[in-house]
């Protein structure tokens, strides 16, 4: 989903707008139709800078009217809309900023949380690999199909 973000791991202390590529390419195709890439044809010439986010293919945009020189309590994508579609933005709602903390401490806590959350499932998988099927499992229609006898 497109939106404003702060992610110190990828963007430092900058506020960025993370556009959903498919969504903005669709806006561009419907409203402009020039057949060119919307970033290169419109966003970059309008003064927006593309900031890559690691090696994932995702990116953030910064620039005038979008993330620079704006009231962070009243964020809209109107400036980008106007650059991409050539029409004034009419966004009537304000967007919040998604803040992601990826400090080493928070990453370690997140990993530990998921390790505990899935510990019982991991244990069941280990047991399933080492314990033979029960007689009831073998006799079930599903068991016979798996064994190739059904």
Q: How would you sum up this structure, described in words?
A:
The protein is of the alpha+beta class and 150 residues long. Helix content is 45%, strand content 12%. The chain has eight helices and five strands. The chain has helices at 8-11, 21-31, 38-43, 78-85, 104-117, 119-130, 135-139, 141-147; strands at 3-6, 16-18, 49-52, 59-62, 97-99. The strands form two sheets. A three-stranded mixed β-sheet has the order 2-1-5, with no helix packed on it. A hairpin with a 6-residue loop joins strand 3 (49-52) and strand 4 (59-62). The mean pLDDT is 85.
Task: Tag the structure with descriptive keywords.
alpha+beta; 8 helices; single chain; two-stranded antiparallel ribbon; three-stranded mixed beta sheet; 150 residues
SSE inventory with pairings:
Elements: E1 3-6, H1 8-11, E2 16-18, H2 21-31, H3 38-43, E3 49-52, E4 59-62, H4 78-85, E5 97-99, H5 104-117, H6 119-130, H7 135-139, H8 141-147
Parallel strand pairs: 1-5
Antiparallel strand pairs: 1-2, 3-4
